[in-house]
Amino acid sequence: MRYRYRNGVGTPERRPAAQLKFAAAVIVVLCIAGPAMGKAWNAATRRIITPPTGSTDSGTMVVPSAVVFNPGDSTASFPVHFYIGTFYADTQYVSSLAKNDSATVVFDTWPALQRGSQTARCSTALVADESTANDRITRTFNVRVRDVGVDSIYRPRGIIDSGSSITPQARVTNYSTGTQSFYAKFRVGNSYLDSQYVFNLSSGSSTTVSFNTWRADTCGTFTASCTLSLANDQVVGNNKKQNSCTVLKIYRDASTMRIVGPKGVVDSGTVLTPQAVVRNYGNTAETFPVIFTIGPDYTDTMQVTSLAPQDSQLVTFAYWTAVAPGTFAVRCSTAQPGDTSASNNWASDSVEVVASSYDVGVTRLIAPKGVVDSGAVFSPQAMVRNHGNTAASFPVIFRIGAAYADTMQISGLAPQDSQLVTFAYWHAGPGGVLTTRCSTALAIDTLASNDAATDSVQVIVRLYDVGAIRVIALPDTADSGNLYVPQAIVRNLGSEPMSFPVRMTIGAYSDTKQVNNLPAGDSWAVTFAVWTASGRGSAAAVCSTMALDDRDSTNDLALKTIFQRVRDVGAEMINVPTGNVTQGTVVSPSATLENFGNSSDNFPVVFHIGTFYSDIQYTNGLSVTFRPCTLAVMGSFTMKCSTAMSGDRIRSNDAVIDSIRVVSSGIDAGDLPGTPRAVTLSTSGSSVFSGSATIVYGLPKRTPVRLEVYDACGRPVQTLASGVGEPGYHTAVWHCTGADGRALPGGAYFVRLTTDGLTLTSKVVKLK
Fold first, then answer.
1. Is the N or the C terminus of the chain less surrounded, counting Cβ atoms within 10 Å?
2. Which residues form the FlgD/Vpr Ig-like domain (predicted)?
3. Is the pTM of this model over 0.70?
4. What is d(CA 399, CA 73) in angstroms, rounded to the nearest whole number?
5. What residues does 663 pair with on adjacent strands?
């Protein structure tokens, strides 16, 4: 008897609730009455049918099944459980199985996804079972995976010198659950093919496969690919890897452009870092040593690694200490193996080491001097000079009477150079004649007689004088729209307490506060009403005291210049792509931006094309170019470029929206309506041809135009158009001939369109 408890769509059939309740009641009665009636109850699992012993391929849809048996002496109904590992469990119900009869039970489908050794268990669950020893059967089987893959191609790749002999190599891995043997096939372009047999590669192991030598005789860019062939490979997506290599004639030329330092005159004992600029004038990235010498005692070598063609690099060498006085030759040279031009390998200069002399002093006092009003505010100033032959850093002290002293630090004052030193504010007082003195304090000064200068100032006491000292609590830069609470420090410079109004103005903003009974000599911080920064550009915050009996109006005003910053950027125009674009074209989207604010900002810009392309770039300029995009799907698509600067005041100008139409690569120039919005270049039909190629180019305006064809080594072979082009779409047919009319061999060629300020390039391939 065979039980397939299935409904019409292949899922386990579920018993109605009433039938299950009845069956449960029958089982309970039998459990109670069975022994009394002398009946023997027993349900057993005889064998597991599926999954079978041995190996099962990963991904197989397995339908578990087992044979159960009733060895008792009465008809029995009971559930049967089936388990595979810890990840599969199903229960089916066997109804009314006669004594000494068996049944095949089929369970829910299990996808064999868990690789390796697995255990299947089937067991009966008769409630009144009097012998449980035969309830369960187990089976062990293996889920097998067959999969090998190419991890990477080691060689060839990158730039290869023409004529080189290369041993192609690829790294492969056995991802199977067992040992595998398979073929590896390697191709380079259309001219090289080789196969190697990988024997008994163990599970999880990798190996590097080397192929027969390939000679790079032909210039151009070639695709290198490695493909694996394993019978019944279950993951074919990793069977192939490919990259590209470019064969060209390499010339090497590493040059020393200039010596940055040391040179000129330096102090004895100075520690300097030798530096020089080198350049790669060759056509491929190069690694080479650079040697730097100073006199007979200093030599250091640094390695420049992978310097790009036509690129320069600043090379920094080990420290050099200028010890002995004298003039020393400085020389830097490159030592590139195979250098084709030795004349530019080195550069030379000289450095003079002199003994240090330290002498600084005060040449004169600038302020204060003469007669000043009591309470007036001055910035003491003095002129100092470095009389030595070595740059010097030193403190300068200014004293006025016994109550004022301030120190300023001078850093790196050059030999024979002078500097005006400004000190902290001095409030003129007390009354009388006060001595002013300024002095330098260089610890290693060799001549002390010129270190100090003295003068005097007479302070006249004024009875009633208040003044605005300074504006505080306002930033140097205020963002438009933000709220600020202006404050100012005012001071009673007279001899009596005073009450007076204080006014703060910032453009159209004005507020007045009253200061009452400010003691003589005291200061007060006046807080004004909230000011909203609403303009743009510079604004003057002016605080003024307005005492009626003030006898010195020169100190009544304090001013602070505030820059009102407006942060507002937006997208103005999408430059690339525009209009109709040929399917498969790779474009680098670009857009023109506008800074409507009045300060430089660095901000993100987002570019979308339909739903298949999105990129974000950060810029502080007015144009931005995004990562390349391949327009692979035909149709019309919406493009959106938008700025996303935090704190942008006006969001309405952030985005610009445009659209493009991606058309078939086989479209005719006559099928493109109107005038393009930008210069375009494409082929009519496939870019791979055997007889002739039709080139389609579009001009948005009347402009000088030149259409040329170059071979893979960059040599011009034919001019298709030259002159002034009219707006619209144009075609040019190239029959794969050179300027002399002779047919050119098959391979890759490049069509270059040059207009006023723009160059576009498209690749075409002639079949051999």
1. C
2. 703-755
3. no
4. 123
5. 582
